[in-house]
Amino acid sequence: MKASDGQLIGYEKEGSELWLWDDLPELHMEAGYRIDRLLHYERSPYQEISVAETAAFGRMLVLDGVPQVTEKDGYIYNEMITHLAMVTHPHPRHVAMIGGGDCGPAREAAKYTEVERIDVVEIDARVSEVCRLWLNRDPSERADSLTHLHHADGAKWIRKPPVPIDVLLIDRSDPYGPSAALYTKAFYKSVYDSLSADGITVFQSGSPFFDMKGLRITTQRLRSLFPVVRTYWTAIPSFPGGMWSFTLASKGTDPLLGCMDRLPTDTRYVNKAIIPAAFELPNFIQSALD
Amino acid sequence: MKASDGQLIGYEKEGSELWLWDDLPELHMEAGYRIDRLLHYERSPYQEISVAETAAFGRMLVLDGVPQVTEKDGYIYNEMITHLAMVTHPHPRHVAMIGGGDCGPAREAAKYTEVERIDVVEIDARVSEVCRLWLNRDPSERADSLTHLHHADGAKWIRKPPVPIDVLLIDRSDPYGPSAALYTKAFYKSVYDSLSADGITVFQSGSPFFDMKGLRITTQRLRSLFPVVRTYWTAIPSFPGGMWSFTLASKGTDPLLGCMDRLPTDTRYVNKAIIPAAFELPNFIQSALD
């Protein structure tokens, strides 16, 4: 616990309180969270990993000082990155996800009875282990039994997947550090090639409000490869600005024609009506992507 | 300009930079914005009013250190509080709004040709004047000619409106200070009584993520008075957590049966598809309101 002497990225003592400061230099903003307890800290070969009990969001996974996923709103992200592709694909037997060592999307995907195998590719083995210890309060036996965890570079792993992938989720963090390779043109091509004949992928594609350029590049790259590309959005309170985008690309089925009856009933965010609604884009997003 | 000696609520010098710190004690969070220039500062009889040029959101109106509306995302709020009621009401001739001295909703309402009169009730005359000087970059002659500005306590004004109101927007700020009276049970009853026979009101009803209790109270009070009450939501990046709710209550038409063809085409956020989508609530909101 080095917080008190200021060596831990992002954490600062303020009088008798500990705060985490998420520095957002590109946005010229900063977000501060009061920490009730620093639960875990370590330095992995890739990054500084910590888990903090925050007053606002419960437990929070922090990598190099940047909040990644929280206990109180992580389900919004996990459900929204997973279910829209899962209900669109007619028979998702093989699911894979790159990034997202917390295995939240794997737990959501395992709710579909037709799923036979889930590959989770997380470059940093310590992230998976820390998440399992501190954030996995709602473990799923079925997800555990289906999941093959690979501690590998996702951009390399995807070039030789063990089987063709039906649904591939790109749960990447910001475009620097360990995730940088998940933003290259070559990676998008590898994603396309890794998918089965009617495969579907979903990319976490950033804030449409703060980084329209990034969303536009993701969309263009996917459009150059896939016949069906659709952007959808939601609000994730612990993410900067809240408004967040995902981009779905499909070799076959259009998500607007997906079968909502397959949606599991034990969700906290998504439902049959929210899914089509999420594809309705505000004018400022639609016009930037046209 | 008192910023440099720290007397201005919320502003702080950090080295050579000026920052605004939005202290959110109930959320145990703080949000910081780098200020390129402090454009205006004054102390009115009600509050400290400032306008800052922020790097993240352009010009920002700040009251007692709390950001209210920004140049870059204010249109989302203004369009979302206004158009859903305007397309629902079959013939909105008389529109009124309580709070919201920036007159953004008035500009949106004036886009409907049937509107004959707009009453804007803003308790602090200086807020209206400061907004007119610094934030009204897109003035509307039609809105100006239709608008009657009242510098009065909205909770008192609404008891004797000049004419029955067809569409009434409650653009209230947080439930303390000048806005506290807009959260009482008596106020909701006055709102009901002020409306015409098929009148519609929309309340800004807070963050469903951080203040579900507040949203639930607003919903319950409106349900006890109106036959049709519907909650809708959007993401407003400069608001804490982004995710934000509005609650519409109608004496007649259900918004889900509103006529989208009446929507103006010069909007930056809302469109015919976004409006019905905004009424689709995530499970965690729906179950809290059931």
UniProtKB/TrEMBL annotation, chains A, B:
Binding positions for S-methyl-5'-thioadenosine per the UniProt entry: Q47, E122, D153, G154, P178
Keyword set, alphabetical order: Polyamine biosynthesis, Spermidine biosynthesis, Transferase
Binding site for spermidine: D102
Entries under Pfam families matching the protein: Spermine_synt_N (PF17284), Spermine_synth (PF01564)
A molecular-function term among this protein's GO annotations: spermidine synthase activity
EC number: 2.5.1.16
InterPro entries hit by this protein: PABS, SAM-dependent_MTases_sf, Spermi_synthase, Spermidine_synt_N, Spermidine_synt_N_sf
Root EC class: transferase
Active site: D171 (proton acceptor)
Catalytic activity: S-adenosyl 3-(methylsulfanyl)propylamine + putrescine = S-methyl-5'-thioadenosine + spermidine + H(+)
Annotated metabolic or biological route of this protein: Amine and polyamine biosynthesis; spermidine biosynthesis; spermidine from putrescine: step 1/1
PABS domain mapped to chain residues: 17-251
Family: Belongs to the spermidine/spermine synthase family.
Subunit annotation: Homodimer or homotetramer.
Cross-referenced NCBIfam families: PRK00811.1
Function, as annotated: Catalyzes the irreversible transfer of a propylamine group from the amino donor S-adenosylmethioninamine (decarboxy-AdoMet) to putrescine (1,4-diaminobutane) to yield spermidine.
Protein name: Polyamine aminopropyltransferase
Organism from which the protein derives: Paenibacillus mendelii
